[in-house]
Amino acid sequence: MPLIDPSVVDLSRAQFALTALYHFLFVPLTLGMTFLIAAMETVYVITGKEIYKEMTHFWAKLFGINFAIGVATGLTMEFEFGTNWSMYSHFVGDVFGTPLAIEGLMAFFMESTFIGLMFFGWNRLSRPAHLAVTYLTALGSNLSALWILIANGFMQNPQGAAFDPVTMRMQFNSFLNLVFSPDAQAKFVHTSIAGFVAGALFVMGVSSFYILRGVHKEFAARSFRMAALFGIVSSMAVVTLGDALGRLDYLVQPTKIAAIEGLWQDSNANSSAAASPWLLFALPNDATQSNVAEIGIPYVLTPLITHSESRVIPGLLTLEQQAGPRIDSGITAINALQQFGETHDPAALATFQQHEQDMGYGFLAQEFAPNQDLTQITPANHDAIIAQTEKATIPNVFVTFWAFRIMMYLGFYFVVLFAFAAYYSLRNELEKHPLVLKAALFSIPLPILACEFGWITAEAGRQPWSVYGWLPTFQAASSHPVGYMAFSLVGFALLYSCFIAAELYLMFKFGRLGPQHHEDHEPAGHAAPMFATGAADKSWQ
Prior knowledge:
By secondary structure, the chain is mainly alpha-helical. The protein has helices at about 5-25, 25-45, 50-85, 85-120, 125-155, 175-180, 180-215, 215-250, 255-260, 300-305, 315-345, 345-355, 360-365, 380-390, 395-425, 435-440, 445-460, 480-515, and strands spanning about 160-165, 170, 280-285, 290-295, 465, 470. The chain folds into three domains: about 5-255 and about 395-515, no CATH class; about 265-315, no CATH class; about 325-390, no CATH class. The radius of gyration is 26 Å and the shape is globular. It starts with 5 loop residues before the first helix and ends in a 28-residue tail after the last helix.
């Protein structure tokens, strides 16, 4: 494969990271608020109390703002695979395109259709029918995330496809293996429940604002209680499922888990070294391949990662050395593949098939070969090229280590915050504890921040691969002029910043207005105007 200008690759990565991080600011609330809104409407249908209908209306209004802007920021990302990552699209498009197509045709349209019914069907549907629509909206939102994470799961742990040396593409061969990839399923549950945490803390934080101001007190107290109970279950689940993802990474992406733990040397299995610490703080230095400073808890790392007391966790230096034979094998595979493409020699095909599983490591070595030509590797330069490629198999340890730590620390903080919030709410003592209310209010953005760092952990830890073990990131990009990429990057940054500003303005505006009662006065047979503001309750000012 021809190599792309490294500056273009870096700009392509920066642009996709920018658009993904911007878009992911809106995703957690979309995933989490839908089920919380459905829970509120369930209580309304069961009890008939109008306050729960009012709660459903108000939180659905804020959800609708977030959903609309989230859709706008997400549309461009699927096009980026074709515009900025054409080699990636060529290599795995047959596989990767399948879940993206299903996400667009089924989940997205299902979600959009039922959102319309949810907003405008209050006086046209019976209570049970409207409740069913609300649950289908929540299901559609999470199905959308499912198919995206199935696509991402293939990048993390390729299953359901085989490489075709004739077409030079990964060919789709098992829908079930693709869909039921352990990585995809675990990541879907973890991501969805992280969204539940974000939705719960958003509702709890806004409710805290009303309680602190002494307005909408009954509305706020009930919303706070439901969100706190929803949040304590979700936050404990997301921490537990994070452990399951770590176990998967240990099995299929050992370089990622070693980078997450800042583990340069192997964790020993013998009793004298079983004290391998789980690091709470460290400053990994990628240049020296060591940690400048460490603070950890002894005896925790091995059982935490391996779920045993005796297994060895390979360190990054060991994993580099283990990559050496695979790089040699991959170089043989690429040379045989090139020969087969030129001559259709069955012997060349047989050689390729013997080394096929290491092909990606051959592509990785191409960056360091003279003129990016693997046939120019000689005994004189072989060892230097292998050594360079070995180091390239390791992700950025500092970024991966700290992205994970920030996400993890925030996750434990949410468990504690929700526990206190639920306890005081159930005892009707919230107003006696303004510190908890203020903590909830100012913590509104933190679950979204945790989700962002979780995404960084997953993607930075996968490097240098766009498809783990098969296609290096530097070979996946499109060939564009540097100026074009820089211009589009700045353009996206400005456009998406406008979306963020619009989201914040609308959320603050309608959040400060609080719940309105205009639905109660809507004539029978007419849909309630869900985004009408009515007269603002300004008694707190």
